[in-house]
Amino acid sequence: MRLCALLLLAACSLDVEPSGGLAGGGSGGGGTQPEISFALDILPLFQQDCQICHGGAGGLNLDNYEGVIAGGVSGPVVNPGDGANSLLVRRPDGCLPPGMPRDGEHCTTTGIGPVAQWIDEGALDN
User: Fold this and answer.
1) Domain range holding 52?
2) Integer Cα distance of 3 and 58 in angstroms
3) Residue 105 is assigned to a structural domain of this protein
4) For 63-106, what is the HEC assignment?
5) What percent of the chain has pLDDT over 70?
6) Helices (H) and strands (E) in the chain, counts
7) C-alpha span between 83 and 95 (Å, rounded)
8) Predicted TM-score (pTM) of this structure
9) What pLDDT sits at residue 53?
10) SS3 (DSSP) at 2
11) Which listed site, 38, 106, 114, 116, has its alpha carbon 20 to 30 Å from 122?
């Protein structure tokens, strides 16, 4: 009986939703589902803003997940779980030279925010 009471208390402290999933989410930890999808959210950003220069012609290839994870001439561009310190965030936002795009204004928080969140959530191929 005591074990059942302890399990019930533990379940209540997890904030379980009626669907059986955990409440909250998107923070990348604790078994929650990611909020950002590579295929639905990140790849379209790369296609729109980045692939003109980083589309498979050597260097950094942002055409697909494998290319992103492989990195480029400067090495890895993604540190899964650490968007703030990933080159894929630091260069486009202008924090680390050369800023991207090289011949235009640096990416806005609106454009780079989802990329940073995706990396913070583990940089999954989802």
Assistant:
1) 36-126
2) 59
3) yes
4) CCHHHHHHCECCECCCCCCCHHHCHHHHCCCCCCCCCCCCCCCC
5) 69
6) 5, 0
7) 13
8) 0.69
9) 86
10) helix
11) 106
Torsion 114-115-120-125 (CA) sign: positive
Tens of pLDDT along 93-116?
777 787 777 776 767 666 789 999
Question: Does residue 75 lie within any of the structural domains?
Answer: yes
Structure tokens at 116: 């940073």
CB 45 within 8 A of CB 109: no
Residue with tokens 């930890």: 29
Report if residue 27 sits inside a domain. Answer: no
Q: What's the domain count of the chain? A: 1
In a domain, 89, yes or no: yes
The 10 Å CB-count burial string (b at 16+, else e) for 97-117 is eebbbeeeeebeeeebebbbb
In b/e form, how buried is each residue of 34-72, taking b as 16+ CB within 10 angstroms?
bebebeebbbebbeebbbeebeeeeebbbbebebbeebb
Q: What are phi and psi of 15, to 5 degrees?
A: 60, 60
